[in-house]
Design a protein that fits this description.
This protein has 2 domains: 21-86, Orthogonal Bundle (Chemotaxis Receptor Methyltransferase Cher, domain 1), CATH 1.10.155; 97-312, Rossmann fold (3-Layer(aba) Sandwich). It has helices spanning 21-35, 44-58, 63-72, 77-86, 97-117, 135-147, 165-173, 186-192, 208-211, 246-257, 296-312, and strands at residues 123-129, 155-162, 175-177, 193-195, 203-206, 214-218, 232-236, 260-267, 281-285, 288-291. By secondary structure, it is α/β, with parallel strands linked by helices. A 7-stranded mixed sheet has the order 6-2-1-7-8-10-9, with helices on one face. The protein starts with 20 loop residues before the first helix and ends with a helix. The structure holds S-adenosylmethionine.
């Protein structure tokens, strides 16, 4: 038997030669160029594990052969399959609870006051960019419909986009394991979700009220956007930019801000910040920003500072 001089196995568990450093560097470049996602060297084993089964399925003999297949058709179906296997899709209902408190305590009262004074149309538009399997846009839908119901003349529109067709297929079904119900406030759970029965007993499903206000679309935030019209009152782009490097992060933020209404709000994940990234927004609490373009921006930032000071007292 020939000895393998390195400590690496000669083939992966499915009989394909392990991903070499050179091949990993080629995948890194390809994925960064297409999706803006930077795969750190520690992700090599993960990439190998995630691609091996696919390569075998397609009957390709090596990572190089698979790479060629993707590169030869950069807009093709296999590029989508590759990106599906690279993205991290972890998500929860009502993730970052302080942001939902901020919506209810700060933003919604401001909208209600604007409505009472006359200048605000009763349409609320939200974009969940990097929506994964739908927990984020449906959490937003529950919160908004509770405070701004159609019965009072309000219309809620939520656009939910992601790079991965796999998560979008799952999000469109709007079915989750019932174990996830603990993430949803009890009142919302009872009002907006349906419990499965029979073969679906271990699942829950979005009820028609929230289902009807969320629309899903595949969109790569790393490319120019031409399919979206109008501005949004709220943009959520949480736990997405964390996988990008500084250059692509800056480009994506500038692109997204073109779609934020004057005095609209921008939400990030807990480990992300826009400090030093753009001057077009002002921080109103950690991870939440207001568009500086609107007349409400200074007022809003001031009001939040007061609230935080009084809470601290
Ligand atoms: C960790 S999940 C975050 C989900 C949700 N926003 C949250 O905070 O719970 C990150 C999502 O960003 C998506 N994503 C990664 N790169 C993207 C890109 N270039 N364009 C659009 N979506 C992307 C991934 O497919 C994944 O579903």
């Amino acid at each position: 038997m020939t000895k393998n001089p390195s400590n690496h196995p000669a083939t992966t568990s499915l009989g394909i030669k392990p991903l070499s450093e050179r091949e990993f560097a080629q995948f890194q470049k390809l994925i960064y160029g297409k999706a803006g996602i930077y795969l750190a060297p520690v992700k090599k084993a993960l990439l190998e594990a995630r691609l091996t089964r696919r390569i075998k399925q397609l009957g390709n003999k090596s990572f190089t052969e698979y790479l060629r297949r993707v590169v030869d058709d950069p807009e093709g179906a296999e590029m989508i399959q590759l990106l599906d296997r690279v993205a991290t899709n972890e998500t929860h209902f009502f993730r970052e609870p302080r942001q939902f408190e901020f919506l209810e305590q700060q933003i919604f009262p401001r909208w209600a006051a604007q409505d009472a004074a006359g200048p605000r149309p009763r349409l609320i538009r939200v974009w969940s960019a990097g929506c994964s399997t739908g927990e984020e846009p449906y959490s937003i839908a529950m919160t908004l419909l509770d405070h701004f119901p159609p019965s009072a003349g309000w219309q809620v529109e939520i656009l939910a986009t992601d790079l991965s067709t796999r998560v979008l297929d799952s999000a469109r079904k709007a079915v989750w394991p019932i174990t996830k119900s603990v993430e949803i406030p009890h009142g919302y759970l009872k009002r907006f979700m349906l419990k499965g029965s029979g073969a679906q007993a271990d699942n829950m499903k979005a009820g028609p009220e929230i289902f009807s206000v969320v629309r899903f679309e595949r969109l790569n935030l790393n490319e120019e956007i031409d399919s979206i019209a109008g501005r949004f009152d709220l943009i959520f782009c949480r736990n997405v930019l964390i996988y990008f490097d500084a250059a692509s992060r800056g480009r994506v933020i500038e692109r997204l801000l073109n779609y934020l209404a004057p005095s609209g709000y921008f939400f990030l994940g807990h480990a992300e910040t826009l400090n030093g990234v753009t001057e077009r927004v002002r921080s109103v609490m950690p991870t939440v920003y207001i568009h500086c373009a609107g007349p409400q921006a200074n007022l809003a930032a001031g009001a939040v500072r007061n609230l935080e000071t009084s809470e601290a007292r």
